[in-house]
Design a protein that fits this description.
Layout: E1 2-7, H1 10-20, E2 27-32, H2 35-38, E3 42-43, H3 51-61, E4 65-68, H4 71-75, H5 78-84, E5 89-90, H6 94-101, H7 103-112, E6 120-123, H8 126-136, E7 140-144, E8 153-156, H9 159-172, E9 176-179, E10 186-194, E11 198-200, E12 205-206, E13 209-211, E14 215-218, E15 223-226, H10 235-253, E16 259-269, E17 272-279, H11 286-293, H12 298-306, E18 322-329, E19 355-359, E20 362-364, E21 370-372, E22 376-384, H13 387-398, H14 414-417
Parallel strand pairs: 1-2, 1-4, 2-3, 4-5
Antiparallel strand pairs: 6-9, 7-8, 7-9, 10-11, 10-16, 12-15, 13-14, 15-18, 16-17, 18-22, 19-22, 20-21
Organism: Spelaeicoccus albus
Domain ATP-grasp: 107-307
Family: Belongs to the GARS family.
Length: 431
Amino acid sequence: MKVLVLGSGAREHALVRALTADESVTAVIAAPGNPGIAQTCETRPVDVVDARAVTDLAEELDVDLVVVGPEAPLVAGVSDALHEAGFAVFGPREAAARLEGSKALAKEVMSSAEVPTAMARVATDADQAASALDSFGAPYVVKADGLAAGKGVVVTDDRDTALTHARDCLAVSERVVIEEFLDGPEVSLFVLCDGATAVPLAPAQDFKRIGDDDTGPNTGGMGAYSPLPWAPPGLVSEIVNRVAQPTIDEMVKRGTPFTGVLYCGLALTSRGLRVIEFNVRFGDPETQSVLARLATPLGMLLLAAAEGRLHEAEPLRWKNECAVTVVLAAENYPGAPRTGDPIEDCDRPGDAGDAYLLHAGTALDDDGRLVTSGGRVLSVVGTGADIETARAAAYRRAGRISWPGMQLRSDIARAAAEGAVDVPAANGGQP
């Protein structure tokens, strides 16, 4: 089987790494890829939101499966064009991808499917936004209605900051979503879907804020770990039964069946499980940690989802180890990141195979040196028998890498390693 992976981030690097380990996969091509991915497989230049260019490339390469990594090409209808050209595609069509493309639509779907989620109000002007903020009170949660690369959400105790973000969202969109704040730890669960069947992967937890102890602005994600030693028994089954499967069934009723991966972002609150958001693709950086642990060959699994055969899939197998991902970011991220800085010691080997690098915002300069080219530059994935061992491996490897202004959080998975994650009583924890 020949597979084309669309995208250029650490998520796609993780997908490429897992696909090349599948003996049924004879070739992997990434488009456009990045310098790290290019060390693993062939890369080809392409604009991933240009449906014609992507389809032409798939036809030229004569691939058996196209895996769409980022959200933008899905919302742009690239999956539709590939389907129409006869390709098997792992990723939803445009109409189904609106689950991520519109926060307001996602709320409508969850309401119809009786999926537990935060109370929300959709505002179309600043006055409505202000009224919604006052009705919920602090902490204020303001979400851009459209795609924002994981940075469209502001959570703040400051009403002026919340209202400013709402106005900024309305300047580029007709709607903004104001929600109640959800307490409790967050969980990310990827659920593979073929339009009817839901197959969950292992849960993970990510860290959105730029600074230690969840300080500073939201980012695309600064780290993640899997599994969750503190998760209540039966959590994954509950998410599938109460969230993923009802959503999949509702999408069928609407005539927009969902194929691909449904990312369920949830909070385990004092009132029970609540959905924070849906995404329609693998999340970054959770993918890096989850795929590090998956023992089932990935290629045939994604093909089964694309072809509507997930009900035939055998139970997933997982490695008996933990994985912790630490993101290394450029100076000034998540603002306008500084780029072009040479990355030192990037090619130095890890410790006995217990840590490895996945590239994201990297490039080669005119002299062939590896330099920063984006906000999130590298993911360092550490593995080990427990969270603390995996965490130590990741930070040991991260400590060997440097460039001017490099940012990283020092507390990824720390609370989990210390057994200090509090789960509210409604979810099996202590009040």
